[in-house]
Design brief:
The protein is α/β, with parallel strands linked by helices. It contains ten helices and eight strands. Strands 1, 2, 3, 6, 7 and 8 form a six-stranded parallel β-sheet that branches. Strands 4-5 form a two-stranded parallel sheet. The chain binds zinc ion (ZN).
Length: about 280
């Protein structure tokens, strides 16, 4: 798709997002702007359903109070019941996330593109990949990217007992700390499949659960143009985009980023990483 076409589609999406009104765009996590964090709805496991923004009626089904994190002392992470799905607040801010890596075949290309446009992103890494590629985590740290915990071996957490979930998460935080320099503050369950134990252990380890708003489904290798189109269709203020830099053949994901990132920036989006807020 040409860039102008992308921009035109973009505007149409923005008009749709505006029509949702204030309630439609409220929710989720705080970007680096000081807004409060609040939980949003969980995606289904594997979750194409998370691609579109929620309809206003779905927001109305939620209670009007109780969005905010439970009272917590500074440095303590609340135990959530749902993952965060998008950025809250105003402004044309989006977050790009890359899962399952790092993979030396694809991650350096993605880092190069992000660097070219001076853009930061999030990488939800698997411990076993991180342990093999600590240099890539060090580069992510140098270039200001946020590294999140995506478990050690990418299992379906809902099929595991507490002890195994803890090992999967704890080992991964340890290897991230060693290679990246700090412990992760975010985690994402493989397949978007969270359970209560995962929320509790994540909080215990100081991590907030982050899902996504737009799934590029890049792992199905649908073609670079389709991936670019999915980002264009889904782009809106507060959107979190899911792609992959590992776990299979990912050259389409690499090429797609080279096209949709400059297009998003040209459309006036601020592509950034979220900042943790305690309330
Ligand atoms: Zn994954």
């Amino acid at each position: 798709m040409q860039k102008d076409q992308l921009l035109i589609r973009r505007r149409a999406v923005l008009a749709g997002a505006a029509a949702l009104g204030a309630a439609g765009v409220a929710s989720a996590l705080a970007p680096g702007t000081g807004e409060r964090a609040a939980p949003a709805s969980a995606p289904a496991a594997g979750a194409p359903a998370a691609r579109r923004p929620l309809k206003p009626s779905e927001y109305r089904l939620r209670p009007l109070t109780g969005y905010d994190a439970p009272p917590s002392t500074p440095g303590r992470t609340p135990v959530r019941r749902e993952p965060l799905l998008r950025l809250s607040g105003r402004g044309r801010t989006m977050v790009l996330t890359f899962d399952d890596g790092p993979d030396p075949r694809y991650t350096p290309d993605i880092l190069d593109t992000l660097a070219r446009y001076e853009t930061r992103a999030m990488f939800f890494v698997c411990g076993e990949m991180a342990a093999e590629n600590p240099d890539l985590l060090a580069r992510m740290a140098d270039e200001g990217h946020v590294v999140g915990n995506h478990t050690w071996s990418h299992p379906l957490l809902t099929a595991l007992g507490r002890r195994r979930i803890r090992t999967e998460m704890e080992r991964t935080s340890d290897v991230i700390e060693k290679a990246h320099g700090s412990r992760p503050e975010w985690f994402r369950a493989p397949y978007g499949a969270w359970n209560r134990a995962a929320f509790r252990l994540g909080a215990e380890l100081g991590m907030e659960p982050l899902a996504w708003t737009v799934d590029t489904l890049d792992w199905t290798t649908p073609g670079t143009r389709t991936i670019v189109g999915r980002v264009a269709d889904g782009a809106a203020p507060g959107v979190v985009v899911l792609s992959h830099d590992a776990g299979g053949e990912r050259s389409q994901s690499v090429r797609a980023l080279r096209r949709y990132l400059p297009a998003l920036l040209d459309s006036g989006y601020h592509v950034t990483v979220p900042r943790r807020q305690y309330v």
